[in-house]
Each structure stands twice: as structure tokens, then as C-alpha cells.
Design brief:
Number of strands: 0
Structural class: mainly alpha
Strand content: under 5%
Number of helices: 1
Radius of gyration: 51 Å
Distance between the termini: 173 Å
Order of helices and strands: H
Length: 120
């Protein structure tokens, strides 16, 4: 009889242990499911924020391209202005040199005319 009682105790213990393990797995599965749901929710928020950041970066890139194009135009305009200024300066230098030469010629003409009068 003792053997039957011991066997029943042992079977009960194994059944209890099996039940405890099963309940542990069920509880673990529930906790993991909850945590996975939380992680998934957080990942969705992160993805949403990244989408917003990507959109903002696209806008910034577009604006930078626009600024780059405008700067290229400004550089071309400045190059044209430089040519115009250089040409005008060269023209002014020529005019100044021409005036200087005209004055020298006028002085020389006066000297020559004055010498002719003295010679006459």
C-alpha cells in the first residue's frame, strides 16, 4: 500500500509540475506578446518620425538646389559685370590718355606757332 501512495504522490507531483510549467509558459507568452506589441507600437512611431524627417530633408535638399542655381546665376552676372567694368575702365583710361595727348599737342602747337612768330 505504501508503494501505491508513494506512486500517487509522485504522479500528483509530476502533474502539478507539468501544470506549473504550462502556466509559466502561458504567462511568459502573454508577457512576451504584450512586450512585442509595445515594441511594435514604438517602432511604428519611430518610422512615422523618420518619414517626417525624410520629408523635411527632401524639402531642404530642394531648397539647397534652388539656392545653388541662384548662386550660379549670381556668379554669371558678376562675371558679366566684371567684364563691363573692365571695358569701361579701359575706355576711361584711353580717354584720359587721349586728353593728355591732346593737351601735349596743344602745347606743342603753341610752342611751334610762337617760334614761327619769333622767326618771322
Amino acid at each position: 500500500m505504501k508503494k501505491k501512495n508513494e506512486k500517487k504522490k509522485e504522479e500528483m507531483t509530476l502533474q502539478k509540475l507539468a501544470g506549473m510549467v504550462q502556466r509559466g509558459f502561458i504567462e511568459l507568452e502573454s508577457k512576451m506578446s504584450t512586450k512585442f506589441d509595445e515594441v511594435e507600437s514604438r517602432l511604428e512611431k519611430v518610422e512615422s518620425k523618420l518619414d517626417g524627417i525624410e520629408s523635411r530633408l527632401d524639402k531642404i535638399e530642394s531648397r539647397l538646389i534652388n539656392i545653388e542655381n541662384r548662386l550660379d546665376n549670381v556668379i554669371l552676372e558678376m562675371a558679366d559685370m566684371r567684364k563691363d567694368i573692365t571695358n569701361k575702365l579701359e575706355d576711361n583710361v584711353r580717354k584720359i590718355e587721349l586728353k593728355k595727348l591732346e593737351k601735349r599737342v596743344a602745347i606743342l602747337e603753341k610752342v611751334i606757332i610762337g617760334q614761327k612768330k619769333v622767326d618771322i
